[in-house]
Design brief:
CATH topology of the largest domain: Rossmann fold
Number of domains: 2
Strand content: 5-15%
CATH architecture of the largest domain: 3-Layer(aba) Sandwich
Helix content: 25-40%
CATH superfamily of the largest domain: Class I glutamine amidotransferase (GATase) domain
Protein name: Asparagine synthetase B
């Protein structure tokens, strides 16, 4: 999985996932040649790699033992992690998700990793219990329809999405979309607390935390829910209920395409050609989880924008790990934390290979980006729930 010898990093994750589904024993060799995968030498695995265009090398038993000895050496920042079982993957996404395309859905499809689409009805009927891993599509959990009102209030797709959201909320027994989304947010919270893994990108990250923090508080203006917001609602926000963020100030103006000051999009001072973020380096033997989540063939990852591009480092809780950051901007791009028995990862930005994905833009063609470091970070999150659990040393 290093930079020079793997012709399709993304489909390699699909091969590994497929091998787990076939009950093969798989090891993830953390920090060894870009985070390589060690699979048995079976004819059907070779054939599957050839069909999907994934590079592989055949090792003798002595070569394998030599590699594992090197990895086990206390002097090497490497570790061999056994992957036990392919996680059951769900993607929280509406059926008609125009005008967006979701990076996670794109890469799961490209890597041929099976997933099930779920939405409000499935979540509220406790169907998340069927899954190990959940991705949140670029959703607005605050009930403000993505804050698209300023620019797109007269666009047919906006009018249709608003109508569909209201119809679904009514069907589910709620008088407002914001109330339905809060109920969904709480179910997702409980999924994580109970031991699930949650991954979110773009506006699903901060709007999810905002929804939890505003439980019982009306933060929506009349054009969103038909009545006035609560006076002085900022003072009623409860940061103790959030996963990752603290002390944020909500954006009250309905015409501003922003939820709060968590996002750094309008505060950034870096041109596109210099927009990169750095992945942190962890001890593979002592901290295998963040090490798994940061496996890549480069530590420098190209930045990309979204409604929520990145997170103000000052507004991130101290118990949340910043795994990718741009120090020049004082922003975090890639963060991870625990909640109850489960874990969550938030990744800022919309599409790792589309710098400024605009409404109506065509979806990214991943055949053009088979070695994308940004998309690899997504797939790290898909695969790491398969790891055999070890007692953490830190």
């Amino acid at each position: 999985m290093d930079e020079t010898t793997q012709q399709n990093h993304l489909k390699a994750y699909g091969i590994t996932f497929w091998a787990l589904e076939q009950d093969y024993k798989v090891s993830w060799l953390l920090n060894y040649r870009g985070g390589s995968f060690l699979l048995p030498d079976a004819q059907e695995i070779r054939k599957e790699c050839q069909i999907r265009g994934v590079s592989f090398e055949i090792l003798s038993d002595s070569q394998t033992n030599s590699i594992l000895e090197e990895i086990n050496s206390p002097s090497q920042n490497m570790e061999a992690v056994v992957l036990e079982k392919a996680p059951r993957v769900a993607v929280y996404t509406p059926k008609g998700k125009k005008p967006w395309d979701d990076a996670v859905t794109l890469v799961l499809t490209y890597a041929e990793i099976p997933f099930t689409a779920v939405y409000d009805e499935e979540v509220l009927s406790d169907q998340l219990l069927l899954y190990d891993w959940l991705h949140l599509h670029h959703e607005d959990f605050s009930g403000q329809y993505g804050k698209f009102f300023g620019a797109y209030r007269n666009a047919p797709w906006y009018i249709e999405q608003k109508k569909e959201a209201e119809t679904l909320a009514t069907k589910l027994g709620f008088s407002k979309v914001s109330e339905a989304k809060l109920a969904v947010s709480k179910k997702i919270r409980d999924f994580v607390i109970g031991g699930g893994f949650m991954f979110a990108m773009c506006s699903a990250t901060d709007s999810f935390d905002i929804a939890l923090s505003a439980d019982g508080v009306d933060i929506c203006e009349p054009m969103f829910d038909g009545d006035e917001s609560e006076p002085n609602y900022q003072s009623k926000i409860d940061y103790s209920k959030t996963f990752a963020f603290k002390d944020f100030i909500l954006e009250r103006r309905p015409t501003i395409y922003e939820f709060s000051d968590i996002d750094m999009t309008t505060k950034r001072k870096i041109p596109m050609e210099k927009d990169y973020f750095t992945l942190m380096e962890y001890s593979a033997k002592w901290d295998p989880i963040p090490t798994m989540l940061c496996q890549n063939h480069t530590q420098l990852v190209k930045g990309f924008m979204g409604q929520t591009t990145s997170f103000d480092s000052d507004l991130i809780k101290s118990n949340v790990l910043i795994m990718g950051e741009n120090k020049y901007n004082g922003e975090a791009r890639y963060i991870h934390g625990t909640k109850g028995k489960g874990m969550f990862t938030f990744f800022g930005g919309h599409d790792p290979e589309d710098y400024q994905h605009l409404v109506g833009d065509a979806p990214t063609v991943l055949d053009l980006h088979p070695n994308s470091p940004g998309y690899r970070l997504i797939l790290n999150n898909v695969l790491f729930p398969a790891a055999k659990k070890k007692k953490q040393k830190t």
